[in-house]
Amino acid sequence: MKAAATIPGKIRRYLERVKRETIELRSWSRPEQQPAATLGMLFDEVFGIDQDTSGVAATLRIARATGQANADEVDAQLCAPIRDLMIDALALDAGTSVMLRFAELIRGGYDVGCAVEEIGDALQREHADDHSAQSSSAGQQS
Fold it and tell me: What domain of life does the native source organism fall in (predicted)?
């Protein structure tokens, strides 16, 4: 354990020396007879990434495999419905119940878009019912 504890310090000192003396930062290459460790094998199996994969390619592969590659597109599609839902929830003083219902739907297996749509529809129905009830009671008072 003691030897492992000195590794960060050795790396830091080496990097400082590289910076100070402008020596070339060497890369390490795995000897052919030394297989990749468990994490290396996992990354190779799941993402097709090994020590020769560039950082850009690795990032793209991980993003694609985890669904993050389409995150910007999905975020853009959800932006307006989420904003509208939050505006309605706050205007109706229903923020807490909306968030609790959202959590319940997500736990129940709904995706974000469907949960937002369902809650938004329910809020609009409730608001319309409240509005029509107020209108009819106002008409009866006249």
Answer: Bacteria
User: Nearest-CA neighbor of 71 among 83, 55, 59, 87?
Assistant: 59
Using an 8 Å Cβ cutoff, are 81 and 113 in contact?
Answer: yes
Residues 120 and 100 in one domain: yes
Q: How many CB atoms lie within 10 A of CB 43?
A: 18
The answer, as to whether pTM is greater than 0.90, is no
Position 117 scores a pLDDT of 94
Secondary structure of residue 131 in the 3-state scheme? helix
Q: Which domain holds residue 56?
A: 35-66
Note whether 60 and 96 are same-domain residues.
no
Residue 112 belongs to a domain: yes
> 81 and 62 share a domain?
no
Contact 121, 81 (CB under 8 A): no
Q: 81-116: per-residue pLDDT in tens?
A: 888 899 989 988 999 999 999 999 999 999 999 999
**CA–CA separation, 92 vs 127, rounded Å?**
8
Q: What is the DSSP letter of 21?
A: H
